[in-house]
Amino acid sequence: MELRNIAIIAHVDHGKTTLVDELLKQSGAFRDNQAVAERAMDSNDIERERGITILAKCTSLEWAGKRINIVDTPGHADFGGEVERILSMVDGVVLLVDAAEGPMPQTKFVTAKALALGLRPIVVLNKVDKPDAEPDRALNEVFDLFANLGADDHQLDFPVLYASGRSGWADEALDGPRKDLSALYELVLRHVPQPKQLSRRDEPFQMLATTLSADPFIGRILTGRVEAGTLKAGDTIKALHRDGEKIEQFRVSKVLAFRGLSQTPIDLAEAGDIVTLAGMSKATVADTLCDLSIDVAIPAQPIDPPTISVTFGINDSPLAGKDGSKVQSRVIRERLMKEAEINVAIKVTDSPTGDSFEVAGRGELQMGVLIENMRREGFELSISRPRVLFQEIDGVRHEPIEEVTIDVDDEFTGAVIEKLTGPRKGDLVEMKAAGAGKTRIIAHVPSRGLIGYHGQFLTDTRGTGVLNRVFHEWAPHKGPIEGRRAGVLISMESGTSVAYAMWKLEDRGHFFIGVQEAVYTGMIIGEHNRDNDLEVNPLKGKQLTNVRASGTDEAVRLTTPVRLSLEQAIAYIDDDELVEVTPKNIRMRKRYLDPHERKRQSRAS
User: Which of 8, 155, 304, 592 counts the most CB atoms within 10 A of its CB?
Assistant: First the structure.
């Protein structure tokens, strides 16, 4: 059977997963009476809630007697470790672009990786049936993007389809029949080459592991594309590290292939196909699984280094252990090491004391998703403010710079530019009209300057602005950047908050907690309306006497508290503060640094 391997690339919310759903349905991958969830490829709970793809996932369908393996890639740069690995398994890419928004930052990030590998793209302009769609402008922007990324003549001569993933059609012309996705199936078969590995079927078996996961029944499993040879269950092979060192020798217990949304055991894995193997105990991502006669590992795609670091520690607050069941540092360490094994974009190191761990990754969103997964699993954690990682290049200290793309209403443009280019040390690169009363701003801003900015950005734009960011380059350190300006309100007592006390404190700032909530000494309960921290007593009730009041008591009316999400809390805290994360609560509190730690952090900033 003829074979094609393709990846679908798109920015967050451009309709990638919805299009894959339609491709599966129209190819007959589902039974007529089969119940299939909307966005079936988003299998993770957080993916469904947030509408983003976090994990790279494979699926497979048949069309006209030919098999097409499709990889759904993450759209956010924080999960770029998944993207880089998965692109090494495919021979072509489908670039999906919203006809109204055009190519966005995460499109640029993933497309640059694909073009560098020499993959020829197919461009699909999605949502062309929306009222604000401008397919001609979007197509010109795609061509300009390819040219700027150094695409060669073959890559610039790309085919284009106009589509609506939700409605389930794609056509070569904008005014086409709009019936089904036949044009996309046929274009993939015509434009994407068959895997070149097919000619190496008679060689000894070789496969590069690109994703790692675990199955409760068959244990550790590795997925990748077979580079050469064939393999069947029961064969004995070995795993090589990227430097050629032998890791282990094992017997393959299962050979699985993607058929629709499920993995099915197959008799024989052949060169060019994407398969999953079980039976290993030590082999991991970027290792080579090969015949016993092979001694040279397959070169692995390099991964961009992490740019931020967060400290994960045990929850040592007075309320520790009341919500979660996993509170020991040993259990936290095991979970983080398991995550680092599966996710190559994350690095975990132990602290000298052993009760906290430095976790380095791509961005705040990636860290937020990891912490959210852990709290849902029953963990209690204390999380530090994210810190940017620096590099020494030619003896000069360099820091990561991010390209920020902002779509904002014209009236808020001045406030956004002032905040980015002033205290946050950003450089304005481009500003242009985006239509419908909006302006597109592109700026290069230090990663340090973007920590905690998103909440302020939403305030400045009345919640209407859209901000996207992607790693741009390493640049010389730009000097100190001002942190949070406002101070915080800190509880000076432990107990349960009282309405009367909080009512009397309302002129001091706004609160993060409500009435009748547990508080403790050192817990941050609100934001001060001045720049200094203030210790307050949220437990103080009204003094009662046996003297009748001459007038009536005032009714206590409290302003609704501001509830910070996990990412907002992590971005909000300062260096001497922590976020306390439990399965039921997100709290913030002060931590008192020893002089050595305070000196280290001031030197790092």
Answer: 8
